[in-house]
Amino acid sequence: MYKDTDTEIAYQNKDIVAKLFGERMKGKTLSLFGLESNLKVVDVKPTNLPVVRAKELRMDNLFELEDGSVAILDYESVFKKENFIKYGRYIMDVSERYLREGKDPDIHMIVLYTADIENVEAAFVKTACRIKAEAAYLVGVPSKEWLGEIKKSLSEGMITDEILMRLILLPLTYKGEERKQKAIQTCVELAIQIPDKAQETFALAGILSFTDKVINEETRRYIKEVLGMTQIGMMLVEEGIQKGIQKGIQKGMREEATQTAINMLKSGKFSFEEIRRYVPRLSIDEIQEIARKMETV
Length: 297
Hints:
The chain is an alpha/beta fold. 52% of the residues lie in helices and 12% in strands. It has helices spanning 6-12, 14-23, 83-100, 143-156, 161-169, 177-191, 197-210, 217-227, 231-267, 272-278, 284-296; strands spanning 41-44, 48-49, 57-58, 61-65, 70-76, 107-113, 123-125, 130-132, 134-137. The strands form three sheets. The chain has a five-stranded mixed β-sheet with strand order 1-4-5-6-9, with helices on both faces. A two-stranded antiparallel sheet has the order 2-3. The protein has a two-stranded antiparallel ribbon with strand order 7-8. Strand 2 and strand 3 (57-58) form a beta hairpin. The protein is extended and about 80 Å long. The relative contact order is 0.11.
């Protein structure tokens, strides 16, 4: 993982590309994922589910559909029975989120399986509960045919939503690490040839989002270089710069607050509660810790 600059961290930040991809899914149908559903996406919701557990849950996509239902979308490159525990938590936490808003929509749990996975039992059944996934499989997809159609559409300038989605999903239709990495690079190179910038951004965001679980470091570095000054590349850089600036501001404000607390403690005229009221950025515990450190110096 790149850790040397905020810009590089932002390049890998799935939140950014998932948001870009999700926003451009509005008005498009679930059939684009190979599902037998023509329901359209009408809104995109945050995918993070902060819960009281050691690890925050984060699904791949959360869509509100035109019939009022909600679709949780995840994709998997390895089948694990325990994934259904994760799906169950997604379902319960999404339900809780909506119930707090006074809503109770139906929920679809959609799992897109890469070509590495054949047909599996997409359900977890116990006497107490039943977790059923609506599965879409990429195994058996004619990858060469898809690639040919994508190239033909690009040359003719006739790029439909279906072609864009095939470009996004194409890397996941290949079995094996090496073939996937090569396909990711090929699809990014094709995506940056799309003349319509909105379509280019949709394709690139989708590729980056859907290959996040399978991409290796070499391919990440390659894509980072290829993105260059594309619209999505600039958006990621700008996002990274803004995050860096915000971190700097927050760090500076915290340092200033700490110094103010130190000065007030040195004066001996203020209680911890009074300092807390004057410097709300610090908690009582933090002020007390600063005082303890001062005593040991």
